[in-house]
Design brief:
By secondary structure, the protein is α+β, with helices and mostly antiparallel strands. It has a single domain, classed as STM4215-like (2-Layer Sandwich). It is 29% helix and 34% strand.
């Protein structure tokens, strides 16, 4: 595989990663066997999906899986379609704030050397992400789904190191939106609950109060906009 992911490959080389986590039989929560791992940085829902895509391409490379958004569903309409390899699509079902109706200040930045100041805001979300697995035959769909679920357990540590706070298998469903597909191919729909903390950077150049007090409202808005788009 041409694509190189340094941090992920470093984790994959660590053989212990495969036995650092297990699933609680009552809650389906992925739990560390030793010290509970926590996220080291923020993560959006799309960041999580991109991580899953990278891990899938590495860990399930033998299936040559195509990983796309759920817009793929508009392409499969031909009853004679033949899948040369499995396909996994994704979609965000929901994203709900967790106990906070607005972002809170997580860090205050004051860098006088670079004339920068501002706040880093954060907000926690409870997300439900659905993955849809398409395969040419029943047995292959079941095999890919089983290995995909195992992959999510094995690399929970990687997800958590990159911003995912919690990861749960939620359910397997028969999504009626994919009934058309089931007439010609085998489809599996599985959902995961993902807890993330999204960071919002509001750091810009320090402005002298005298300058702010001597400009018009329109100029103030322009300066404020320029500063909020600095260092992003």
């Amino acid at each position: 595989m041409e694509e190189k992911i340094d941090e992920l490959e470093l984790l994959l080389d660590n053989k212990e990663i495969h036995k650092q986590h297990y699933i609680d039989g009552k809650t389906n929560e992925i739990i560390a066997n030793t010290t509970r791992q926590r996220s080291d940085k923020g993560c959006s829902c799309f960041d999580f999906i991109k991580m899953v895509q990278k891990v899938t391409r590495l860990d399930l490379a033998r299936y040559n899986i195509e990983f796309n958004s759920d817009r793929f569903k508009y392409r499969v309409t031909d009853p004679q379609i033949v899948l040369d390899n499995p396909i996994i699509t994704y979609q965000t079902i929901s994203r709900i704030p967790m106990g906070e109706i607005k972002p809170r200040i997580r860090d205050v930045v004051k860098d006088q050397d670079n004339n920068l100041a501002g706040n880093v805001y954060a907000q926690k979300y409870n997300c439900v992400v659905q993955f849809n697995i398409f395969a040419s035959v029943y047995d292959l769909a079941e095999e890919v789904m089983s290995n995909f679920e195992s992959m999510m357990i094995k690399y929970a540590g990687y997800f958590k190191r990159n911003g995912v706070a919690e990861l749960y298998f939620k359910e397997e469903i028969s999504d009626s939106n994919y009934d058309l597909f089931r007439q010609v191919i085998s489809v599996r729909n599985i959902r995961y609950t993902v807890h993330i903390e999204h960071l919002y950077n509001n750091v810009g150049r320090i402005i002298d109060d005298v300058i702010i007090n001597n400009v018009t409202d329109d100029d103030t808005l322009k300066v404020y906009h320029e500063n909020n788009n600095t260092q992003r």
